Predict the structure of Reverse transcriptase domain-containing protein.
Amino acid sequence: MWNETFKKMQMTVNKDFSSSGKDLQHNLNMWNETFKKMQMTVNKDKTKVMVLGKEEEHINIEIDGQILEQVNTFKYLGVQIDSQGRGNIEVEARIDQTVKLYHSLNRSFLNQREISKKTKMSVYKSVYRPTLTFGRLK
């Protein structure tokens, strides 16, 4: 039963999850009812709504009578996305994170003359580069 139900739900997502608030509400209701049948629940506090590519459109989407929070940015699997489809928000977040890291290490570590250039380069390669590249330390 699970595989068949999941395939139907996946087809809905692949086709076009929602081109309007009404479609989104219908599809979300379908998912929610299917999950209930399988004794699963949708976490209403973690579930967010974001309208993509439109100017400041507000829609009310709900699960079991609770209106979901609508957001303009959302972090999913470590990647920050925004409602206008711009990717630079993630790059800016990584740069900000790296600058904060630099300032915290500079005061206590990097500005000391006793520390060799080799050690400082090692810190750069193991701390700064992964933060810029992946948004976090490895």
Observations:
- Strands lie at 48-49, 62-63, 66-67, 69-70, 73-76, 79-82.
- The CA atoms of residues 74 and 81 lie 5 Å apart.
- The chain has a mean pLDDT of 78.
